Amino acid sequence: MKVVVLLGAPGSGKGTVAALLVRREPSVCHVSSGDLLRAAVKRSDTPAARAAAEAMRRGELVADAVVGALVVERLRTCAPDGILLLDGYPRNEQQAAALERELARENSRVSAAVWLDVPEDVLLARLGGRRICSQCAAGYHVENMKPRVDGQCDACGGKLIQREDDQPERIANRLVVYREQTGALIGWYESRGLLVRVAGGEPSDAVADRVARTVVS
Ligand SMILES: [Zn+2]
Q1: Average pLDDT, the chain
Q2: Domains and CATH numbers, the chain
Q3: Cβ neighbours around 52 below 10 Å, total
């Protein structure tokens, strides 16, 4: 089992690239931190899953060690010769250290951290152009994924809106948080000789090709 961490700013296309990889490479087990926690709440069948469910019910952050343990539980459900692709976790150095400890107990470790490096102007254009349907939440983009009728959802006719998170001042704030936390994490993996930088400014298929060459080798 290979464990690969996918790093990148909001708008870097981590989720899209991961989804493309899963479709192409059946050996890839994609784990996003959001999915991991939602699944834990549903099953509540191990101490870590129960601890995560309990913290979320109280509206608290789930402890790093708990998320690390959930990653290990997920790892055990993937094919032994597969690749566990982590997307959205770890987010900072503390979480990376917690993950390292949990994996070490399984005689496993992170084998690469792939950083999707996307220029800031591209990130701003991607995030600022996002629209979602106010009724069915389908996603659109003013440049890359236009609806058939301007401002209107193809699927249900609902009005397209900009999420609060995608308003210009919120985007600027998300990028600051990213630079502070993930920026340090990039250095952390680099100092361990695990960082692989992939230029991520192009369409996602080309980027997925490059990530695939790194991950499946
Ligand atoms: Zn809709």
Answers
A1: 90
A2: 2-121+169-215 (3.40.50.300)
A3: 24
